[in-house]
Automatic annotation (TrEMBL):
Its main location: mitochondrion. The chain crosses the membrane at residues 52-74, 86-105. The keyword Membrane applies. This is NADH-ubiquinone oxidoreductase chain 3. The keyword Cell cycle does not apply. It is an enzyme of class 7 (translocase). It is a multi-pass membrane protein. It comes from Leptopogon amaurocephalus. Keywords: Electron transport, Membrane, Mitochondrion, NAD, Respiratory chain, Signal, Translocase, Transmembrane, Transmembrane helix, Transport, Ubiquinone. Its EC number is 7.1.1.2. Belongs to the complex I subunit 3 family.
């Protein structure tokens, strides 16, 4: 129990010391050069707040959706050691089938096309 308390106090004090050191040494006087957007050494030509195409966000959401496949299928090697590996195979096949159907649907709807 003493080791847990020691580690808790050590991590808490180290966090506080590092935070105070950062606040103490940080510069709090920004100038106009630091606040201006950087565009390869040239002066900015337009607004830095131009809206992005919604296609970038759709592709990012699709990537996150299909990337969850790894998180869901990662424990499969350990799940084969359970009492019923057939159930594990059934569920993993169902997950892969659903994701494949979603990918086919997005492909046919044109969600993966970059240019129209």
């Amino acid at each position: 129990m003493n080791m847990i308390i020691f580690m808790f106090i050590l991590s808490l004090s180290l966090s506080i010391i590092l935070t105070m050191f950062n606040l103490w040494t940080a510069q709090s006087t920004p100038d106009s050069e630091k606040l201006s957007p950087y565009e390869c050494g040239f002066d900015p030509l337009g607004s830095a707040r131009l809206p992005f195409s919604i296609r970038f966000f759709l592709v990012a959401i699709l990537f996150l959706l299909f990337d969850l496949e790894i998180a869901l299928l990662l424990p499969l090697p350990w799940a084969t050691q359970l009492q019923s590996p057939l159930t594990t195979l059934t569920w993993s096949s169902t997950i892969i089938l659903i994701l494949t159907l979603g990918l086919i649907y997005e492909w046919t709807q044109g969600g993966l096309e970059w240019a129209e």
